[in-house]
Amino acid sequence: MDEEYDVIVLGTGLKECILSGLLSVDGLKVLHMDKNNYYGGESSSLNLIQLWKRFRGEEQPPENLGASREYNVDMIPKFMMANGTLVRVLIHANVTKYLNFKAVDGSFVYNKGKIHKVPATDVEALKSPLMGLFEKRRARKFFVFVQDFNESDPKTHHGMDLSTITARQLISKYELEDHTIDFIGHALALHFSDEYLDKPALTFVKRMKLYAESLARFQSGSPYIYPMYGLGELPQAFARLSAVYGGTYMLNKPDCKVEYEDGVVVGVTSEGETAKCKKVVCDPSYLPDKAEKVGKVARAVIIMSHPIPDTHESHSAQVIIPQKQLGRKSDMYLFCCSYYHNVAPKGKYIAFVLTEAETDDPEAELKPGVDLLGPVDEIFYETYDRYKPTNDCDSDHCYISMSYDPSTHFESTVEDVLAMYNKITGKVIDLSVDLSAASAGEQ
């Protein structure tokens, strides 16, 4: 281990593995270490015995749940937008050859006490029971504007500068009702809270377009795709990529201590050996003194024997409950996957209910989401703290990722990765890739 590296990466969470792979491809000498003896860190994927050990200690799982090895329960469950940034990164890095994807069956929103399919186009808006007749016409006009909008073609801007007017101002021109704004902002543009309404409308419109483009890609009922055998495959795919380009991996390295000279990182020590480096990349757990708590996520992990009710028998689905529907400050998310994606034995479904915690009682706080699931076989509750870095990475050369938010999609996760890559290398990744290159792995 007594060598010198350009970058030492600590932790094998998804963000760290993506960066390790990309930096190795760039020709940097990378050492990747983890204090755990498994890949994935916070974003690991657990079999049934591991899941039981985490939540129930020495108890054994009941036999009627099936074989432990047939479970791949993702601790940070997120779907991928079919046209989204993570898919572009996967293609850019050429790791799609290590992965197989299937489309996700359904995308839904909770509105006025019921679960509805999310309408994403002007045609779907006209059919949706979410809106009355006159509201459908207004919504259709808005959807047409978004579909036709092209940032580089002023004719499609209708005389508006979306980089200066707010999302609220744009929406007001179409006189949409609050319930409509609710599902458009949260279930289509995938904003966590209503803060987006007072920010420039351009991001809001781009996020709506991404949803519609992703939906059109597979015509599957949702804009999302998900790897066979769960998300645990993703960190390992990037780990393989790093290894192909000369990266070195060391799992089960306890007490990784970052070493400094004059406040600048110079290496990492573990088990009495020090590896020298110019930069360190890690999650907040490795450098807690350089991060601050910014929130807490409450989640329920559920095993059940049926799909989420009212989701058209979807084997895999996302349901978003916008904050206003429950009188909350942030949205609640329902995530469901099953044997269809090889994450559970036949007939079994894995569901999650997640939200930004606003109390210290996850069971009571998550009850509105859990109640939508119907009967469950097993349920586990927990919370985890979210952190963001506070250090000046230009000064100390420590590049720390942000903790995962409670959303059930990957866009904000990848934004953090790309921002970190830019800080580490000074470069911007060209993601104008041929998306058809991913189709070989899709089913």
UniProtKB/TrEMBL annotation:
- Output the Gene Ontology cellular-component terms: apoplast; cytoplasm
Keywords annotated in UniProt: GTPase activation
- Record's Pfam families? GDI
Tell me the superkingdom of the source: Eukaryota
One GO molecular-function annotation for this sequence?
GTPase activator activity
Q: Which GO terms describe its biological process?
A: small GTPase-mediated signal transduction; vesicle-mediated transport
Q: Which InterPro entries match?
A: GDP_dissociation_inhibitor
Write out the similarity annotation.
Belongs to the Rab GDI family.
Q: What does this protein do?
A: Regulates the GDP/GTP exchange reaction of most RAB proteins by inhibiting the dissociation of GDP from them, and the subsequent binding of GTP.
Q: What is this protein called?
A: Guanosine nucleotide diphosphate dissociation inhibitor
